[in-house]
Design goal:
The protein has 10 helices and no strands. By secondary structure, it is mainly alpha-helical.
């Protein structure tokens, strides 16, 4: 994304957090970005494009932080802690902070959900790479690193959307981590 796209996408995220995706207008985003409404339309032709840009920016920034934090880790356990913190625990807390946050986290509409799915597919291989040292063992157990990556994504979605209490969410995260580490024993 170029600088103008980033500025508008960041402004959209702030506006969405405050007003919700449904109630945020292009004028709201323009005001938040300090540009004209026409400038927003010149960069993003419609509200779906703005939403997709905001989601893309948010997820790419999050993924970059995860990768940077992984560089300081020596063990799979540490890397899983980072992944689960940023992809399960923090999103769960964000989801439960307000209805506006829940709209944004869930992608709000088909365009937003498509952007989230595209991002998930983008880092699928990086998560699978965590399990490459155990490829042969995983195959003997009837799975492989990519299948484990897909399982992690599905489990995280379940954790985010199906646990209503913080205690239940943390138990689910701990269970997922223990299961993943058991696969590598």
């Amino acid at each position: 994304m170029n600088e103008r796209e980033i500025n508008i996408a960041e402004a959209a995220i702030r506006a969405y957090e405050r007003k919700g995706v449904r109630r945020t207008t292009m004028s709201d985003i323009a005001k938040e970005a300090g540009v004209t409404r026409q400038t927003v339309y010149n960069v993003f032709p419609n509200t779906d494009a703005v939403l997709r840009g905001a989601i893309r920016l948010f997820i790419s920034g999050l993924w970059q932080r995860i990768v940077e934090e992984w560089e300081t880790c020596d063990t799979l356990s540490q890397k899983l802690d980072i992944l689960l913190q940023h992809f399960a625990i923090e999103p769960w807390e964000f989801l439960h902070s307000s209805e506006e946050a829940a709209q944004l986290e869930r992608g709000y509409n088909a365009a937003g959900r498509a952007e989230i799915e595209g991002a998930r597919l983008g880092f699928r291989g990086d998560i699978a790479d965590l399990f490459e040292p155990w490829r042969d063992d995983l195959i003997r157990r009837g799975t492989n690193p990519l299948a484990v990556s897909d399982f992690i994504s599905a489990a995280i979605e379940g954790i985010k959307y199906n646990n209503n209490s913080r205690a239940d969410m943390h138990m689910a995260v701990a269970t997922l981590k223990a299961s993943l580490l058991a696969l590598t024993d």
